Amino acid sequence: MEEEPESFTQFLRHDAESRPLYTLWSKKQIDGIIGAVDWPEKLEADVRRTKERLERELRDLLKLPGIARSTDSGRPTA
Fold it and tell me: Would you list the domain boundaries of the chain?
């Protein structure tokens, strides 16, 4: 990916560590907290921002009109 936010890498690290540990601990019936990298706090915002940027780039390439999005105030934005 061209402009991959750091939170994407952090998420992949979190997922890559958490899944195998969870599976192993479940099979071996081990109780406790799985010590993996924390879920990145900025992930949701970064995913939303990246999705909107990619949509905008695709619409520009296809020469389609922009998508009106509503903000927290309820007013649409482009």
Answer: 6-77
